[in-house]
Amino acid sequence: MENLDIRSLYIEELTQELKAIGLPAFRAKQIYEWLHVKLAENYDDMTNLSKDLRTVLSDKFPFTILEEVDALHSETDGTIKYLFRLKDDRVIESVLMKYHHGNSVCISSQVGCRMGCKFCASTIGGKERDLLPSEMLDQIYRIQALSGERVSNVVIMGTGEPLDNYDNLMRFLKILTDAQGLNISARNITVSTCGIPDRIRAFAKEGMPITLALSLHAPNNEVRKQLMPVAAKYDLKEVMDAFEYYYEMTGRRLTFEYSLVEGINDEEEHAKELSKLVKGLNCHVNLIPVNPIKERNYKKSNNKKIQNFKNILEKNRINVTIRREMGADIDAACGQLRKSYIDKNSV
Ligand code: SAH
Predict the structure, then answer these.
(1) 97-140 pLDDT, tens digit each
(2) Average pLDDT, rounded, for the chain
(3) Using CA atoms, how far apart are residues 21 and 23, in angstroms rounded to an integer?
(4) From the alpha carbon of 194, which atom of ligand 1 is closest?
(5) Rounded to an integer, what distance in angstroms lies between the CA atom of residue 250 and that of residue 245?
């Protein structure tokens, strides 16, 4: 049988597991704190446990941490992009972004992705596997340990579709926001999805005030289908209804992500149609100039077009910002670093 993944357990479950080998509850508390607050790399770090106990634990519940393979530092804005190796030798990427309001980490939720968005590097090799809760947590833990920076915000916007790895995502979010763990406020967490209606509805019922971002990228289903295969499966109306339901249940302002792709979704008529689509919603639109990847022929809209697009939304009194391109000098678009690593290392 596979070993139990001790770092994916809730404290209550950990307490039970340790009780089964004769350990009292206060030990579970200490160990949980080592794992999730003091960010231990191994049992030998846990200096308030006896050597014998550390040996027992490492036999019974072995764990390994993510291994840093590479870290790229942006010259322009301090962004650091990390490439981590998992236990099974696969690699994932995560990003640390430094803002005035605090440090934000962008994590991956899967190894690869099966959603197939046309402009995205993460989806080219398909999905290899889901990430475990501990592997999602560890991206934040290692970045905090390696950079010496305190992480206050987390965005699940790296490689993968988080709602396609639903149970692991929920467990990850509950441990991340646990007062006895790293205790990151749910209000400082954003989950980004390509839009899977039944999962959005389930997520709405979890009772966590997390910001949900919808990767919209088009004002209607026809244009959306050109960029996102998922639009062929779920009609935009169905996705928007689920998204509104998320607002009703959580009261969290909705975020729309809209990557501007030259000649596809960046015309004035698209901006007008988008204004109509989101009018009346408590929402924010993030315009992202698409980051071209070499495998595809998509181009970034020019600045004038982007500005014009924004002006039309503003005229319609839609909250809108053009997303700053963090770390553009270090392959910061979703999946690019991982993809170039895999290309370089495969024969
Ligand atoms: N699967 C989730 C989260 C990961 S992608 C989702 O679809 O939201 C995070 C965001 O980056 C999404 O809005 C995605 O569409 C966008 N994105 C991916 N590749 C991009 C690129 N090359 N240029 C601009 N935005 C991109």
Answers:
(1) 998 889 999 999 999 999 999 999 999 999 999 999 999 999 99
(2) 95
(3) 6
(4) 7
(5) 9
Q: Which residues are catalytic?
A: 93, 334
Q: Is 193 in the pocket of ligand 1 (CB under 6 A)?
A: yes
Task: Say which residue, 138 or 345, is predicted with more confidence.
Answer: 138
Q: How far is the CA of 159 from the centre of ligand 1 (A)?
A: 8
Please, what sign has the CA dihedral across residues 325, 223, 124, 194? positive
Please tell me the residue having the least CA distance from ligand 1 atom 22.
Answer: 291
The count of other CB atoms within 10 Å of the CB of residue 304 is: 8
> What structural domains does the chain harbor?
6-60 (1.10.150.530), 67-345 (3.20.20.70)
Backbone angle region of 123, left / alpha / beta, with phi > 0 → left and psi within -120 to 50 → alpha:
alpha
